[in-house]
Design brief:
disordered N terminus; 4 helices; mainly beta; globular; five-stranded mixed beta sheet; 8% helix; single chain; 360 residues
Length: 360
């Protein structure tokens, strides 16, 4: 496989040589700013962080700001339910978990109020519409969530999501992996719904509390959808963490093509915990930063004292790796082979559970 390894310190040295022509200082209470969307046709930049979303022109002139928190919230209560008897509401920060451009709008999902989503008018972010209050529209997560917007063969908008469980009530969390479409009956009534009857894959409810999952990236390449994530591995009662990449055939409506395998870098030191990922469609390469796993049972992060590397993966070689090392029928809906070991009512699938590692 074609791969490059680049030292972080070298990259940092290169970056510092560039001069900044514009800047805008954001008040500290809104940081960290972690989400960015660019709309070229509007020459607009949208940035989301803690309790806020900003709309800038390309010269960093601030156009509008919308405040989304702090808000009164509790995972034990329904959103906006002031009569909740299980726990007093507490004021919490509302970070933006999903910020995506869609048509002439922005999809914005926070981490508070069960990850509720809004549709913003991209020309005026003071104008926003609630999604319908059904559990499929609560897509943000305190742990992690990702969204990819594409189209099916008929040109219908199609949304692939990855969402990690964050302890909320079951009524407001449904699937870790799902394909959704969207209905727009009126300008004030947006709703997500499942693309088809079996367009999702979930961690079993009985395993969810002890199963950690952190999504890093989602992207489309060739005819596949890829999720990059870190998940917990339970090996005979010993918990560890592993970075994985999953492949899903876009045209499949039932997640029957789902496959996953481990991904890491070896330099010869093994860097196995993903930190960030980005897919370059023009180059057809996946760029990832990796660190070394911290030996603490509850820590899904890399050890910040052990350094990190940047790795570049050819997507064509990655697809070939799936074909050669992962059993293609180890997927949902194929009774003779079973499903991934974290799925409900599944038989163990040797190819899904063994460590197939993409490495140098």
């Amino acid at each position: 496989m074609y791969m490059q390894l680049v030292g972080i310190c070298l990259v940092a040295r290169i970056i510092t040589t560039f001069a900044f022509h514009q800047n805008y200082t954001v008040p500290r209470n809104y940081g960290p700013l972690s989400k960015i969307v660019i709309k070229e046709e509007r020459r607009s930049l949208y940035i989301g962080g803690k309790n806020t979303i900003f709309h800038f022109n390309f010269d960093l002139t601030l156009q509008k700001q919308d405040i989304i928190g702090p808000v009164n919230d509790s995972k034990q209560c329904n959103p906006f339910d002031n009569s909740c008897i299980y726990m007093r509401y507490q004021t919490v920060n509302n970070h933006i978990s999903i910020l995506e451009s869609f048509r002439n709008s922005l999809i914005v999902c926070g981490t508070a109020r069960q990850g509720i989503c809004y549709m913003y008018d991209s020309s005026d972010i003071s104008l926003k519409s609630n999604f319908g209050v059904i559990k499929k529209n609560y897509l943000g997560s305190e742990n992690s969530s990702v969204m990819l917007i594409t189209k099916d063969k008929k040109g219908i908008d199609l949304f692939f999501i990855g969402q990690s469980y964050d302890g909320r009530k079951a009524d407001y969390f449904y699937n870790e992996f799902a394909s959704l479409d969207i209905s727009n009956t009126t300008n004030n009534d947006w709703n997500f719904d499942h693309y088809s009857a079996w367009s999702f894959l979930s961690v079993c409810d009985t395993k969810r509390e002890n199963f950690k999952l952190k999504f890093l990236h989602i992207f489309e390449a060739d005819k596949y959808i890829f999720h990059v994530f870190i998940r917990s591995i339970n090996d005979s009662g010993i918990i560890s963490y592993e970075t994985r990449i999953s492949k899903l055939r876009k045209a499949n409506l039932d997640y029957g093509s789902y496959e996953e395998m481990a991904i890491s870098c070896k330099t010869p030191t093994k860097y196995d915990i993903g930190i960030a990922a980005h897919y370059d469609n023009a180059q057809q390469q996946l760029y990832m930063t990796f660190g070394i796993r911290e030996y603490h049972v509850d820590n899904i992060q890399a050890d910040n004292t052990q350094g990190s590397v940047i790795c570049v993966f050819s997507i064509d070689e990655t697809i070939r790796k799936f074909a050669s090392e992962v059993l293609t029928k180890c997927s949902k809906g194929t009774p003779t082979w079973g499903t991934p070991s974290w799925h409900c009512n599944s038989t163990q699938c040797a190819a899904a559970s063994k460590v197939n590692v993409i490495k140098l």
